[in-house]
Design brief:
Helices cover 44% and strands 16% of the residues. By secondary structure, it is an alpha/beta fold. Helix 2 packs parallel to helix 3, helix 7 crosses helix 12 and helix 8 packs across helix 9.
Length: 372
């Protein structure tokens, strides 16, 4: 005989549609044979939350426990205060009452989360990096990773990873174990699909991811450097952006893109240095080039030649070392700063060292910062 388990679904002020959460439970019903899953939905008004919290605690004291609870919020609520101490109007009291009523078997759903960087992150993560940053300080890890509970986030509907996580949650043999997601292998391509078709699909997907990550990088950098003077976008720069898109190019196209990039970077360099190239020796280090390694610096030297060598301070090293260099100069004594970054790694590192570096550069460099 199947055991019956009930999920109690809660939301405040109808900020999120609990029917979307029920659709996840409906899918799980088709994948489990030993559990009869039921659900009960309850929307409550914010000013009724203290009363509801007391009711839940009273029922718990009388031995009327809940099997599981799901507390759903909207990603765009003014403050995602779910389990904060002394948060005033936060949800901590009712969330903790649900923990007591379910023996800590509570799932938090953050719906409407459109902050995923790309499809890869969305398909392979329980919640977006954005959502994790918002709420991770409020929870111990075991209440997020399946050991005791979960936090899910999705945009319009749940993903496969949430189905697997919920199956883990319901498996009594895995109680107290952390959830690890194993992506299912993709189906074999149809016989009619040629290698050329597969390659084209892969390249298009790769281009989409690179474009999304590049957009996120440019958006974040612009926020940090907002006090710097913007560099106008020219037709040449637009052509350069087109050349940055991945995909196969003819030999002529590759040569054209190389020429465009060289001309664009060279133009920015001349603008940064000023048209007067007969400055005194005391102004020789008004331009600083910060590279990750010697190959970055060699690339810069090869691009601009020996003509500018006496006017440039070349430095390679870590972001922390770069900050020390910028701080060692008086404010605005460095006119321009070129920083070489790793596009793949920078999205992760912006939250720490590179964010600090750009803030220091913003405050110490006179005219502009150029990210490469």
């Amino acid at each position: 005989m199947n055991s019956s388990k009930c999920f109690y679904l809660f939301n405040c002020d109808k900020t999120y549609d609990l029917d979307v959460v029920e659709k996840l439970l409906d899918v799980i019903k088709t994948k489990t044979t030993g559990i009869d899953i039921q659900s009960k939905k309850e929307y409550f008004r914010l000013h009724h939350m203290p009363e509801l919290t007391k009711t839940i605690d009273d029922q718990t004291s009388d031995g009327k426990m809940m099997d599981y609870a799901i507390f759903a919020v909207n990603a765009h609520e003014s403050r995602l205060s779910i389990n904060e101490d002394n948060a005033g109007i936060g949800y901590a009291n009712i969330y903790r009452a649900l923990l007591r009523a379910t023996d800590e078997r509570v799932i938090v759903v953050i719906g409407g989360d459109d902050n995923y960087r790309n499809a890869s992150e969305e398909d392979g993560s329980l919640l977006s990096r954005w959502a994790r940053r918002k709420v991770s300080s409020q929870f111990k890890e075991e209440f997020m990773d399946g050991t005791k509970g979960f936090i899910f986030s999705w945009d319009t509907k749940h993903k496969g990873i949430h189905e697997e996580a919920l199956l883990h949650f319901l498996d009594s043999k895995k109680k107290g174990q952390k959830f690890f997601y194993k992506k299912k292998p993709q189906a074999e391509p149809m016989q009619s699909e040629t290698l050329g078709d597969q390659k084209q699909t892969t390249e298009l997907h790769k281009a989409k991811i690179q474009k999304e990550e590049g957009g996120a990088l440019r958006k974040f950098a612009s926020e940090i450097c907002q006090r710097q003077k913007d560099v106008p976008t020219s037709n040449l720069q637009k052509e350069m952006a087109e050349c940055d898109d991945s995909g196969e190019k003819s030999k002529e196209e590759m040569e054209r893109c190389s020429s465009i990039k060289s001309e664009t970077v060279y133009g920015h360099f001349q603008d940064a240095m000023g048209t007067n190239m007969t400055q005194s020796k005391s102004e020789a280090n008004q331009l600083v080039v910060l590279g990750r390694n010697q190959s970055d610096l060699a690339l810069f030297r090869n691009l601009f030649g020996d003509e500018f060598s006496e006017k440039v301070l070349y430095i390679s090293g870590s972001p922390v070392e770069f900050k020390d260099v910028l701080k060692s100069h008086s404010i605005n004594s460095i006119r321009s700063c070129f920083i070489f970054l790793d596009g793949a790694a920078i999205l992760e590192e912006f939250a720490s060292h590179y964010k600090d570096l750009l803030l220091v550069a913003r405050d110490n460099v006179g005219k502009k910062i150029s990210l490469k």
